[in-house]
Amino acid sequence: MRGRPHAERELGAASLRRWLGPLLAAAVWAAWLLGQRALAVDVPFAETWPLAVAMLFGSLVAGATSEGGGAIAFPVMTLLFAIPPAVARDFGLMIQSVGMSAAALVIIARRTPVAWRAIGLAAPAGALGLALGLAFVAPHVGGPAVKLFFCALWAAFAVSHWKMDRSGPRDTRAGAGTLLLAGLVGGVVTSLVGTGLDIVVFSVLVLRQGVSETVATPTSVVLMALGSLAGFALRGAALPAEAWAYWWTCVPVVVVGAPLGARLIEGRSRALVSRLLYGSVAIQLVAALVLLPLTPGRVALVLATFAAGLALFFGVAAPRRLEAAHG
C-alpha cells in the first residue's frame, strides 16, 4: 500500500508533463487577450499576419534545433519584408522570450537531458556580451551588412558541423573559460541579429566537447530563452512600436510552435537533428544571396565572414581533432 501514493504522484506528474504545453498556451493566450484589452492595443493584423505565418514555422524550428526563433524571424523580416535589421533584432528577442521560454519549460518539465553546467557558465556571460554589444557594437553596424553577416556565419557553422559530424564524439572536456568566452561572443552576435548565443555555445558543446546534438539542442533552447529575456529587459523602453506590433501578432503562434518543436524532436536521432539544422541554414543563405543585391563589397563581406567563421568553428573543434590524432 505504501507504493500506491508514490505511484499516484508519479502518474499525476506524468500527466502534468504531458499537458504542460497546452496549459502554457492557454495561459499565454488568456494573458494576451487581457493585455490587449487592458492596454487598448490596436494590432494591425491586416499588415502583420504574414509574419505570424512565417513564425509558425520559425517557432517549430526554434524548439527543434539549436537556432532560436530569431534565426528565422531575422532573415524573413529583413529579406522578405524589408524591415530594418534593428527592428528585426528587437522582435527576435521579444518573441523568443515567449516561444523559447515556453519550449524551455516543456524541456525542463519533461526531464529532457540538458547540459546545466554549460547554461550556468554561458548564460551570465551571454547577458554581459549582449549588453556590451547593444551599447558599443550594434549602433555602428546595420543594413545589408548585418543580414549577410548573419547568413554567412551560420553557413560556416553548418559546414563545420557537417565535417566534424563524421568523426563522432571523442573529447567531453572543456574548461569553464571556453564556455564563458562562447557565451560572451554569442551575446555580442545576439546584439546584432537577435540570436547567436544559442548556436555559438552549441558549437562548443558539439564540436569541442563532443556532446550529442540530442542534448546540445535542448541546452541551446534553454540558453536562448534566458538570453532573450535578458535582451528584452535590456532594450526596455527603447523597443520600437513596429516591433511591438509584430510581437502582439505572433505571441499566440509561437507559444504553440516552440514547445511543439521541442516535443517533436524529443528522442529523435542526432542525424535527424543535424539535417534539420542544415536545411534551415541553407534556406537562409540562398534567400540572402537571391534577394539582396550583391555588390563586390558585399560579396567580399560574405566570403570574409564565411572564412572567419570556418576558422572560428574549426578552431573550437581543434582540441578534439588533435586528441583523436594521438589517441
Uncertain segments are: none
Alpha-carbon distance between the two ends: 54 Å
Question: What would you report as the Rg, rounded to the nearest angstrom?
Answer: 20 Å
Q: How many beta-strand elements?
A: 0
Per the principal axes of the C-alpha atoms, what is the gross shape? globular
Number of domains: 1
The SS-based structural class is mainly alpha
How much helix, percentage-wise, in residues? over 70%
Order of helices and strands: HHHHHHHHHHHH
Compute the average pLDDT: 83
Kindly describe this structure.
The chain is mainly alpha-helical. It has one domain. The chain is 82% helix and 0% strand. The chain contains 12 helices and no strands. It is globular and about 55 Å long. It starts with a helix and ends with a helix. The model has no long low-confidence stretch (mean pLDDT 83).
Which tags fit this structure?
0% strand; single chain; 327 residues; mainly alpha
Briefly summarize what is shown.
With 327 residues, the protein is mainly alpha-helical.
Topology diagram in text:
Elements: H1 3-39, H2 45-64, H3 69-80, H4 85-109, H5 116-137, H6 144-165, H7 176-193, H8 197-208, H9 213-235, H10 241-265, H11 270-291, H12 296-326
Helix pairs in contact: 1-4, 1-10, 2-3, 2-10, 3-4, 3-11, 4-7, 4-9, 4-10, 5-7, 5-9, 6-8, 6-11, 6-12, 7-8, 8-9, 8-12
